[in-house]
From TrEMBL:
<dbReference type="GO" id="GO:0005524">
    <property type="term" value="F:ATP binding"/>
</dbReference>
<protein>
    <recommendedName>
        <fullName>biotin--[biotin carboxyl-carrier protein] ligase</fullName>
        <ecNumber>6.3.4.15</ecNumber>
    </recommendedName>
</protein>
<dbReference type="Pfam" id="PF02237">
    <property type="entry name" value="BPL_C"/>
</dbReference>
<keyword id="KW-0092">Biotin</keyword>
<dbReference type="Pfam" id="PF03099">
    <property type="entry name" value="BPL_LplA_LipB"/>
</dbReference>
<keyword id="KW-0436">Ligase</keyword>
<feature type="domain" description="BPL/LPL catalytic">
    <location>
        <begin position="1"/>
        <end position="197"/>
    </location>
</feature>
<dbReference type="InterPro" id="IPR004408">
    <property type="entry name" value="Biotin_CoA_COase_ligase"/>
</dbReference>
<keyword id="KW-0067">ATP-binding</keyword>
<dbReference type="InterPro" id="IPR003142">
    <property type="entry name" value="BPL_C"/>
</dbReference>
<dbReference type="GO" id="GO:0004077">
    <property type="term" value="F:biotin--[biotin carboxyl-carrier protein] ligase activity"/>
</dbReference>
<dbReference type="InterPro" id="IPR004143">
    <property type="entry name" value="BPL_LPL_catalytic"/>
</dbReference>
<dbReference type="InterPro" id="IPR008988">
    <property type="entry name" value="Transcriptional_repressor_C"/>
</dbReference>
<dbReference type="GO" id="GO:0005737">
    <property type="term" value="C:cytoplasm"/>
</dbReference>
<keyword id="KW-0547">Nucleotide-binding</keyword>
<dbReference type="InterPro" id="IPR045864">
    <property type="entry name" value="aa-tRNA-synth_II/BPL/LPL"/>
</dbReference>
Length: 270
């Protein structure tokens, strides 16, 4: 089955660049933007050999996993563009819920899987990482911003030794292909990209994201790279920062860092 856009994505004018194998779909998308590609367009493969996650970690997608990046050329500031990552998380969670429901209908007696969104850019199944999201942006002519949103999902296999233990759809009993997942994801993106509306709809995105947030109200530790902060995961603010309420009652905004919940918070804070 070849990669194909969903019907909503096709109607919305998205184009598709599919590769049998690619180094990095994010790099491919940004290279095309530098060469004049104005999208909106998806770049997708089921085998990625040189992908990157946050903090320049390698993100390798063995054949059968989904590496996908969407290119949007928009007239917003970099800080507003950063909030598009929350719409990406919602898009993938929605696609996964749809496919899992359909898969579970084919698996008699199976419990419905629960997915959640971990700040700032992971999708979890239970307590394990299923997907990571990476945003990159560069200025392009016309005072606009080329924003590439990379979404890597473990379909048939998951890496080992990651900060958050990882899993795959196959290991969870959801036997769908990368192509099927991508079609559902491209349609869900149209919905949540529309709600986001170049940042004007972030208040609604924020509300929907918090309804699916992992660890909300729980003990949390954040390692920013220079310091560790412990407290309770209170909310995310109107800019997308995670708000931690410390033991002294102070509310601290966190713009970036590694997040650990519950018992893992003690390890993360060390």
């Amino acid at each position: 089955m070849p990669f194909a856009l969903g019907p909503r994505a096709t109607s919305a004018g998205y184009r598709l660049f599919a590769f049998d194998k690619a180094g990095s779909t994010n790099a491919e998308a940004m290279s095309r933007a530098r060469d004049g590609e104005r999208g909106p367009a998806w770049f997708v493969t089921s085998e990625q050999t040189a992908g990157r996650g946050r903090r320049q970690r390698a993100w390798i997608a063995p054949r059968g996993n989904l590496a996908s990046s969407v290119l949007e050329i928009i007239d917003v500031s970099p800080s507003v563009a950063a909030t598009l990552g929350f719409a990406a998380g919602l898009s993938l969670e929605s696609a996964l819920q749809k496919l899992s429901i359909e898969a579970n209908l084919r698996l008699a007696g199976s419990d419905r899987l629960k997915y959640s969104l971990k700040w700032p850019n992971d999708v979890l199944a239970g307590q394990k990482k299923l997907s990571g999201i990476l945003l990159e942006a560069e200025a392009v002519p016309g005072d606009r911003l080329a924003v590439v949103v990379g979404i890597g999902t473990n379909v048939v296999g998951a890496p080992e030794g990651t900060p958050t233990p990882a899993t795959s759809l196959s290991a969870l009993g959801v036997h769908v292909g990368a192509e099927e997942l991508f079609s559902a994801l491209s349609d869900a993106w149209v919905e949540f990209r529309g709600i986001w509306d170049n940042g004007r709809g972030f208040s609604e995105i924020r509300k929907l994201w918090l309804e699916r947030a992992a660890g909300l109200g729980e003990r949390v530790a954040i390692n920013t790279g220079t310091m560790s902060i412990e407290g309770t995961f209170d909310t995310i603010d109107e800019t997308g920062c995670l708000i931690v309420r410390t033991a002294e009652g102070k509310r601290m905004p966190i713009a970036a860092g590694e997040v650990y919940f519950g018992a893992a918070a003690s390890v993360g804070a060390a």
